[in-house]
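Let us practice reading a record.
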Amino acid sequence: MYKTILNLVAQGLQKPVPATGLGVFRIAFSLVILQEILFLYYFRHLIFDPVPYLDRASPMLHFFLLVWLAVAGCLVLGYHTRKAAVFNYLFWVLFVCFTPMWQDFDGGFDQLMTSTSFLLIFLPSERALSLDNLRHKLRYSVPGSPYQPPTQVTVLAYYLPLGISLGLLYFDSGLHKLSSEFWRNGMGAWLPPTMPYYMSAIDMSQLLNLKGFEQLIGYAIILFQFLFLPLFWQRRFRVPLMLAGATFHAGIILSLNIYPFGFAMLVHYLLMVPFRWWREIHDKLRLAQPILTVFYDQDCPLCNRTVIVVRHFDVRGAIDFKGLQSHARQYTALDAIPDDKLLTDLYALDGQGRLFAGLDTYINILQAMGYTLPLAWLMGLPGCYGLAGQLYRKIADNRERWVCDGACTVITAPPFEDERPFSRGYARYAATERQTAQRIAKFLVLVLVLQLNSTIHYGLLYRWAQRPADPALAILDHLSDSIINYSHAFLGITPHALYMHDHFAGYNHILALSYRDASGRETWLPFVNQEGRLLAPHWGRVQSMWANVAVTSHMGRDRLEKFLRKITAYWAMELGIDLKDADFVIKLKEVQVPMAWEDDLRHKNMAAPWRDIGVVQWRGKTMRVDIPGLDIEAL
């Protein structure tokens, strides 16, 4: 097996492809990270405080979230990309392993994010759509000798995230689905959107009520998950798999309230977009002819740097730069400018023959580029125009500070090697392409072994056989479980048994909360509504906390009280309720979660009545839960 993997890796390293798709993927994946950090910060008291606002978590957690937010911003922009990727991975491990995100607020996609974040450290995603490209152009270019960073990567940069983060996940998940009754009945895609805690706000009953269609989707998902890993790297299957996978995950986003998981999976399909499509998109964005000609001083380092910056962001090719020394006298519009003034400004000529100078040149550049038009309007506003003009004049009239002093020589050191984490050690460790292939192949073998350990342990032995009674086998079972904990934490390799029968079977009750004031008037907390749906923005990991940990088919009193304390304390502060003397009513609704088809189940579950079963009483910092006559353990 190792030799086969080694040969495949060696072939992949020898096949260069454009980096555009990898750059687009980096931006999209980083935006998913960015929104999740904002979500964590918004709910920081609910998630991290032992008792929201009453027993607070360390404020350093909030500080680390802000630092992580800046790191994610660097990933989006492609600024010091590899270093940002290292810190992003460390933050995922830190927050998932050492905060309540580990069990209480598992977002359902943390393992996927950890896995891909680890791979992103080593992927050359900065070679497209990044500020790192601009940094290297500015650093290694000199007047008359522009530097062009590499824009190609090996095809392995696309295959590794798809194979490890998606392919292994799908295969493991497919094995689990075979043990689930309602998945074997074809109802795997139908049941979750009919359960109020999981359904989205979009009413998709017209599709949910088509039994044949839902069975087709359910069986197609299982088939797709088993076919993805052996077929995704073959060119003729790439587009069909991409369209099918993107459709399935778009369906998750629309039908369920776990949109972060849906988006995290969906963005990986950007790596499957054919390279030809990116070239065609690029060609359609480019203009047939530039709409603005800009003249600059070819001997001015500052002007040359300006040209490099504008060209980097001019994705439409709307600006044509020409050196004044070489082209000035070819344009009659410039004849009226005295020779002693010609090199003191940046000039621009539009398609109508109008000449612009100084700040007006920059405003027209921003207008011509298209997507920067709002910034051009802002600079043209009264007041802003005057301030921007003064700043421009101050810089332009002091260009002597930017005169080349002889140090402007072409630097031949490969800049992107400097961006690799631990680049010098890596160069000694894998100096040749063969050594690089060997290291990657060994890593892939390790990942496969760890995935097989997880899949066999939980997907086969746990679901299809009894736990070992023999002491020696019990030790191996424990060792396997321990290895899974580490692979889960650091590589995101974990059982992917999402929405199985053992979670939904017997899940015939859901809870909601209301506040009862001194006059007896009740107000529903804006958490679970009268239909039983969790309201926005309590989706993602907050939904997972309530629907997968607090309220389940086999919930315990201690666990339920823990999260009742969290929810009531959090919303009391948000709504201005005084906890010195506050009562919250616990409501219960009975719902149906059948393993076989039932018509119009979504509406039936939403229309089911509520009944009061108990009260949460706050007296100062003391909380008591009173649920008379109800055996929680039997629910």
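A brief commentary: Confidence is low (pLDDT under 50) at residues 402-418.
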